[in-house]
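User: For this week's homework, look closely at the record that follows, marking any run of repeated tokens, and judge whether sequence predicts the tokens.
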Amino acid sequence: MSAKIKSGDDIIVLTGKDKKKIGKVIKVIIRNAKKKVVVSGVNVCKRHTKPRAGSGGGIFNKELAIDVSNVAILDPKYKTPTKVGFKIIDGRKVRFAKVSGEVID
């Protein structure tokens, strides 16, 4: 099964407090038929950490996961949100942007 959003993709947030922010996908989480993505610089919270042996405590920024339905891949040509399609080129299945037809990977 091919994934429409993969690590390293440039995406834009469609809804929520970080609407219209652009970032790169750090990690894709699939758990119990729910798909979420962690995006750099988006959905950031403060994490208060207690000092432990080997590491000091403090307040750190942490990116939380966003549901995959709230993000869209950026079109490589026009830099707008786009849907993703699949086609076979030279016997290899590739993703392409539906807006411009450009191959994503």
Summary: The chain has a mean pLDDT of 93. The first strand starts at residue 10 and ends at 13. Residues 10-78 form a domain with the SH3 type barrels. fold (CATH 2.30.30.30). Residues 96 and 103 are 4 Å apart (CA to CA).
